[in-house]
Amino acid sequence: MSQTPRQPVGRSAPTSADVARLAGVSRATVSYVLNNTAAVRISEPTRLRVRAAAEELGYVPHAAARSLRAGHTRTVVMPSARLPGGPLPVRFYDEFQSELRRLEYTVVEYGGVGLDGDEAARAWAELRPVAVVCPGATQPSAYGVSLLRRSGARAVVTLGPHPTRGAHFLALDERRIGAAAVGHLIHRGRRAIGVVVPREPGPKLCAELRLEGARAAAEGSGARTVPLPMAYEEESAAALAARWRATGLDAVFAFDDAYAMLLMRALQDEGVDVPRETAVVGAGDLLLGRLLRPRLSTVRVDTVSGRRLAELVDRVVREPAAEPEHHDLMAARAVHRESS
Amino acid sequence: MSQTPRQPVGRSAPTSADVARLAGVSRATVSYVLNNTAAVRISEPTRLRVRAAAEELGYVPHAAARSLRAGHTRTVVMPSARLPGGPLPVRFYDEFQSELRRLEYTVVEYGGVGLDGDEAARAWAELRPVAVVCPGATQPSAYGVSLLRRSGARAVVTLGPHPTRGAHFLALDERRIGAAAVGHLIHRGRRAIGVVVPREPGPKLCAELRLEGARAAAEGSGARTVPLPMAYEEESAAALAARWRATGLDAVFAFDDAYAMLLMRALQDEGVDVPRETAVVGAGDLLLGRLLRPRLSTVRVDTVSGRRLAELVDRVVREPAAEPEHHDLMAARAVHRESS
Questions:
Q1: Residue B327 backbone phi and psi in degrees, to 5
Q2: pTM of the prediction?
Q3: pLDDT (tens digit per residue) in B172-206
Q4: What does the pLDDT look like over A86-98, one tens digit per residue?
Q5: Which chain A residues are Cβ-neighbours of B146 within 8 angstroms?
């Protein structure tokens, strides 16, 4: 607490030299002890003396210095991806991070917000990560991947709808969600199918892919699909419901369960009978979707587990593959309840 | 792509020396150009030549080297805090990060999962951040704060129910949510008030504080509160509803809107009249809470904006305060709809 904050940290922070002086050992010994270097044998009393001195001075090793010495880091960079509408659940991220920590990597979330693919790749490269994992909307280009590889990243793993040259690719294809929903509605005998497209920017990419999948599923089936822009607001849902009968639609895939619950309520308030007049299907299998009457039909999405992804990252870091690996890690299937 | 991944990065990654050689300038010039050092005048043709060489070689500056040269970083560390039930909305984090990026800080999210307060503080200190912001369940102790300060952090900002010595403190007091809910129910004439306590580990800290606030609000009012453990599952809600009449309760504060929707549905399925027999209040003002009938009463929570927090961090970094600042940044008020 005693430092003058105006001073640069390099001077104000205690150094390994201070620890070495206090413990009466060499700086190398301090570094061996505090970085748990297994290669070097150091007596337990010395270890304890060094740890006590570091404790007393409040010294911690400088990650930057360590990574410069080592020539590489154990850092895995992942863009912050908290945008809603993505296929990966919260627990995926926690599981992924805990598992990588168990494997002695440091997970750093960085630069998912407001950077485009190549800006982000450059920012990540500056941290000299050993691996980069891109689950979000921010995906590096082939150039970004080569930049990362040349700056020392042993693995670049992208999760999304499209592969990137030079990167390992885990397919999370949102199109399947739209295809499963519309396939279910056609199977239930519906022919004029609305597809809700959220007006919010967050789910934009998701929404386009789900719509694409919905259209593909309808193709050649005799059914037609109609995109329906809608905001996640009662007013927007009410406006859409008010002109529902004019659209002549007999079904709707409402992007996800939240939009579906909102639209189904608005349709019921307009006197539209669900499912007799209009079938409604969401996606995500939210527990709350079972609380409305009729119970909401949905699409259940199964994705890669955080643990499995962490193991893949560790494997490709330890044994870099000649060729990038491609795995398909998302399954989507309709769950029929009462609303369709 | 040409590097042999087995080689340490230090050798395989292009260095500023390579860029200097290719551009025919000194390493210092490369560093001035690529780190946009304003102090030094360098001709535009030279800048362009250096950038072109860096581009060609795929060279990016090494953040670690730069921070060692500078003696400090512009890194703001924040633990990943994606656990549900917290008072801060997703858009808070995005706003906070975008604003700090605009102020030319680098936000790194790190170590919120599976590290206790002091382990986390040590891990953060290794990154030599200029500031640390702790919004989640992971809060450093007074020792952790001093460790961070001594390693050069100019500001440690904690957000939560309790202050930590030496750290700036933004009060986000979950107790107010419980107090607002129970105050409302008492105002509506209820006297036997259940308080749902989720069985899930995620919301544990939140739940304890909301219960504490609920109890405090009931004290001396003649009303009593009864904690009701419940899991976020239909079975658990049904079991609680099945023994509802035996409890003699005439109201329930159900932790948040999601638990409230689940429990209200289960009570209705048991034939319990909401609100006549039992009033139900949630928290969070979810749009979905307005979709059930009766419409769910709730507690609206207003917290600090990401922008305001970013500005506070920047100010205390630029002008370190003699004394840690305390601000109160959460308001909670009941919103009466139909379920209470």
A1: -130, 150
A2: 0.78
A3: 888 999 999 999 999 999 999 999 999 988 788 88
A4: 556 667 777 888 8
A5: 1, 58
Residues of B in Cβ contact (< 8 Å) with A3: 149-150, 152
Q: What is the CATH number of domain B75-172+304-330?
A: 3.40.50.2300
Burial class (CB in 10 A: 0-12, 13-18, 19+), B322: exposed
Lowest mean pLDDT among A211-220, A228-237, B95-104: B95-104
Q: Give B99: exposed, middle or buried? Use CB within 10 Å, 0-12, 13-18, 19+.
A: buried
Q: Which of A31, A151, A286 should we substitute to test contact with B (largest number of B Cβ atoms within 10 Å)?
A: A151
CATH superfamily of A175-302: Response regulator (3.40.50.2300)
Query: How close A223 gets to chain B, by Cα (Å)?
Result: 30
Among the partner-chain residues B8, B115, B320, the one whose CB lies closest to the CB of A71 is: B8
- Min Cα distance A222 → chain B (Å) is 34
Residues of chain A with Cβ-Cβ distance to B97 below 8 Å are 80, 113-114
For domain A16-61, the CATH architecture is: Orthogonal Bundle (1.10)
